[in-house]
Amino acid sequence: MTDAAGDLIAAEASARAAGGGLTVEAVRFEHHREALGIGEARPRASWKAKTDAEGWVQTAYEIEVADPDGGEAATSTTGRVASAECVLVDWPAAPLRSRERRSVRVRVWGPGGNEPSPWSAPAWVEAGLLEPADWTARLVAPDWDEDTSADQPVPFLRGRITLRGEVASARLYATAHGVYELELNGMRVGDHVLAPGWTSYEQRLRYQTYDVTALLAPGENVLGAMLADGWFRGRLGFNGGRRNVYGDRTALLAQLEVRYADGTAERFGTDAAWRAARGPILAASLYDGETYDARRELSGWSSPGFDDADWAGVRALEHDAGRLVAPTGPPVRRTEEVAPVEVLTSPSGATLLDFGQNLVGRLRIRVEGEAGRTITVRHAEVLEGGELGVRPLRIARATDTYTLRGGGPEEWEPRFTFHGFRYAELDGWPGPIEPGQITAVVCHTDMERTGWFSSSDPLLDRLHENVVWGMRGNFLDVPTDCPQRDERLGWTGDAQVFAPTGTFLYDCAGMLASWLRDVAAEQTPQGVVPVYVPFVELDFAPPEDVELDEDPGQAAVAAWGDAAVIVPWVLYERFGDAGLLATQFDSMRGWVDAAAARAGARLLWDQGFQLGDWLDPTAPPDEPWRAATDAHLVATAYLARSAELVARAAAVLGRTEDAERYGALADGARDAFNREYVTPAGRIASDSQTGYALALEFALLPTEEQHRRAGARLAELVRGAGHRIATGFVGTPLICDALVAAGEPETAYRLLLQRECPSWLYSVTMGATTVWERWDSMLPDGTVNPGEMTSFNHYALGAVADWLHRTVAGLAPAAPGYRRLLVRPLPGGGLRHAAAAHETPYGRAEVAWERADGTLAVDVLVPPGTTAQVVLPGEEGRAAEVGSGRHRFSVPYPGAEQDAAVPAPAAGSPA
To answer: Which of 25, 95, 237, 317 is 20 to 30 Å from 403 at the Cα level?
Structure first.
């Protein structure tokens, strides 16, 4: 194997017991990365077995649950349970009550063994505040009036807490109207960014739980908070957006619960005794940036002994504690730091920093200068004519300013904003920029990385890396469309098409589960899902030739609203969580019912405005919905697909009547699609790449001959376009699979590896480090697309990475949660090797192939407790079934003569 492939499939032998020894690791609860302050009273447990024994399967398990405060008598076990289950196993003890903490250990048995594995290391799980009555703190806001038509200074709040003894443990529960950051006795509390994040605040407001035991001391303590507008009150959306969407006052809710060493407990909370003042943050906007005057800093403001006599009071506000929910996924955090790779001078004389990577976050500066000097930082993704390219930001200023206090070195990083950028323009910097003075801090939801891909083509690897960076930048609390301009909304269509790729690359189940609850919360009573979630009413401007009888933001739009069905199904496929299907089922069928109502008795969805195959390359720059594919063809195809998935979900959940009903609805929609859009010979009315891809991949063609003819026509269209892509958001995730299903894998590879515009690799040759919104966001001459809507970090078209994982490398789930793998690599396109690895719920799975001297060698790693079906080129009729462990296969390579049609890229191709 090559070094790259070998590295990817290298076993971490140190993590395994010698001689095939069996251990249990990674005991987790639900989809939490950290199980502190969770909202589930009966959290399901998962674990992974580690062993070098080939073909190992779990035959039994035992779970021990211990109460750390209850002594030996409070420990219970399940005893030996004969079961192969190790993913999302039901909670085996009494339900957790608010604040209760338990220690959980697991051991397992394998085949033919009377001896279990050693117990796993203890994993801790602790409930948060599960009942509204658990909250006694008051929601408090600064006691002054504000002009909420503009960004306001960030208030500082502080409250005194007197502790009467030594602290054994302490938890701080907090949330806000706005975004907050906490300090306790002068020390930062937690490492969350932009907490509590963005949810559908009218229905769901997340709170966070912090272990603050180490920050407290007997006697006087001070809890401080900074409150910014965030999504709650700040400007949101395009066309000028809206302010005060959820309210016109920022406010804090914080509750500190202390258990003393003597066994007694005490509770403190925000109340009317708290004090408030304005500090050095003069403005903080998600879109426009942060303004900070260090001369106004309040030294020691969150520590005991600070004099707050001249501070204002606070107002207690009414709030509904029933809205408060614990998070299901990890918070936004700082995850990486990136140093600038070059300092540039623009033609106008501006100082520019190039970080070499389009990223999302903000800058941390270390500077020394005279008091009153102001440093201004502007951000953008690209340069145009050597200057900062800010036109794609529209009216987002993306500008931070820092005024020095003077008197020594100063360090500053904005707290309450984020930007999407590769380049930063500095004005007012004192002297030359020295190494280490400026760092880009990357921020996103702190998901665990679970998927990797590599190949012999450096451009293809750069494309995959661009997809990863695009996901990182856009999975910032909600799956947004873009992270830089005046938008950053949770567009449902983008999430729908990208979900298979995203769930491979990162463990995003907890984050997306939270977002799906907002999808359900924002659904209308008729089941309509908005085009973005959380929903904000904005000034939509529909096309002049389209009449709307409903708010376009809450219109039923196919492929976008279908996220309510497809994303839960993808999460079930990738994580094996039938419970999530149960939670979302009413939302899933509600959407399909809404779509079916619009389709009418004929089940032909041919009315109303649709976004269609959004941003296909033939659409005019400022009319991205005018694609080559009939938008109502797209809508009817999605009705059939989503009805079919609801039927499958109902079958999983044992809902027989629903399974039959939605199965029949799917059949009816397929029949309607065929009557309206398909000829008996398999020609699609919209003679487009997307039209055929939908028909093939959504199984809409009833006869083999229609399928064959449609596949042939799709390949003909791709060849006729010079192997350039002609799909938008809808067709792009499907087209390579459709070509393979049509028996045209080399056509799919030529499409994948095309470098001329429009293509996936065109942006890579133009220096992209994330996936673009448009195939031609930057034109070949280096100018930005003239369309009003142009982003250079927009993950939807990166959905092709799922095909890289499943087909190019050959690693796919064959059963929910990867309980069974499908290993089916499909070499082509001149690639000499490719590999993929994925941390499944059962453990690490790997596939790596290399072809040389007329032979294809394939290495496979199957996680313990799972099996794999291995299907190799030329061996389709003789699939191998293998159990866990490492396996190597070798077959004659049947496609070498075709590779000459697609020359392998030269090493060192521009990336």
So the answer is: 237
- Using CA atoms, how far apart are residues 333 and 874, in angstroms rounded to an integer? 47
Q: Which amino acid is at 320?
A: D
CATH number at residue 848: 2.60.420.10
Whether residues 142 and 95 share a domain: the answer is no
**pTM of the predicted model as reported, rounded to 2 decimal places:** 0.95
- For residue 483, being part of any structural domain is answered with no
Instruction: Evaluate whether 546 touches 540 at the Cβ level (below 8 Å).
Output: no
Could you report the per-residue pLDDT of 589-639, keeping only the tens digit for each?
999 999 999 999 999 999 998 999 999 999 988 889 899 999 999 999 999
pLDDT higher than 70, residue 907 = no
Answer whether residue 520 is part of any domain: no
Are 264 and 341 contained in the same domain? no
Among 385, 417, 445, the domain-final residue is: 445
Identify the band that residue 8 occupies on the pLDDT scale cut at 50, 70 and 90: very low
Residues 425 and 339 in one domain: yes
Residue ranges making up the domain that contains 382: 333-445
d(CA 156, CA 284): 13
Backbone angles phi, psi at 584, to 5 degrees: -95, 0
- Please provide the average confidence, as pLDDT, over all residues in the chain: 94
Q: Which two tokens stand for residue 411?
A: 């360090």
In terms of domains, do 117 and 138 share one?
Answer: no
Residue type, position 459, single letter: L
Asked whether residue 275 falls in the same domain as residue 344, the answer is no
Q: Which helix (H) or strand (E) holds 445?
A: strand 438-445
Residues in a beta bridge with 127: 38
Report how many domains make up the chain. 4
660 noted as active-site residue: no
> pLDDT tens, 323-364?
999 999 999 999 999 999 999 999 999 999 999 999 999 999
CA 750 to chain centre: 30
Q: Answer yes or no: is 722 within a domain.
A: no
Query: Are 300 and 194 in a shared domain?
Result: yes
Reported as a single tens digit per residue, the pLDDT across 243-295 is: 999 999 999 999 999 999 999 999 999 999 999 999 999 999 999 999 999 99
- Alpha carbons 453 and 463: distance in angstroms, whole number: 10
Strands 833-840 and 820-823: unpaired
Cis bond upstream, residue 530 (ω within 30)? no
Task: Choose the weakest-confidence range: 93-102, 545-554, 685-694.
Answer: 545-554
From 257, 425, 487, 850, active-site residue: 487
**Of 844, 835, 770, 761, whose CA–CA distance to 804 is shortest?**
835
**Strand blocks (E) in 733-842:** 811-813, 820-823, 833-840
Q: In what order do the strands lie in the sheet with 820-823?
A: 811-813, 820-823, 867-870, 880-882
Maximum pairwise Cα distance, the chain? 84
Instruction: Specify if 436 maps to a domain.
Output: yes
Cα separation, 464 vs 694, in Å, equals 24
Per-residue H/E/C for 86-111: CCCECCCCCCCCCCCEEEEEEEEECC
Cα four-point dihedral sign 160, 260, 132, 329:
positive
- State the CATH number of the domain containing residue 394: 2.60.120.260
Q: Which residues pair with 142 in a beta bridge?
A: 314
Whether residues 18 and 58 fall in one domain: yes
Candidates 773, 839, 846, 850; catalytic one: 773
Instruction: For residue 319, count CB atoms less than 10 angstroms from its CB and return exposed for 0-12, middle for 13-18, buried for 19 or more.
Output: middle
Torsions phi, psi of 860, nearest 5? -130, 135
- Six-digit token string for 554: 């809450």
- C-alpha–C-alpha distance, residues 880 and 868, integer Å: 8
Q: What 8-state DSSP symbol labels residue 804?
A: I
Which strands form 843-852's sheet, in the order they lie side by side? 451-455, 833-840, 843-852, 855-862, 885-892
One domain for residues 318 and 169: yes
Closest CA to 569 of 636, 490, 653: 653
- pLDDT of 670 strictly over 90: yes
Query: 835 with 9: CB under 8 angstroms?
Result: yes
End-of-domain residue from the set 110, 127, 144: 127
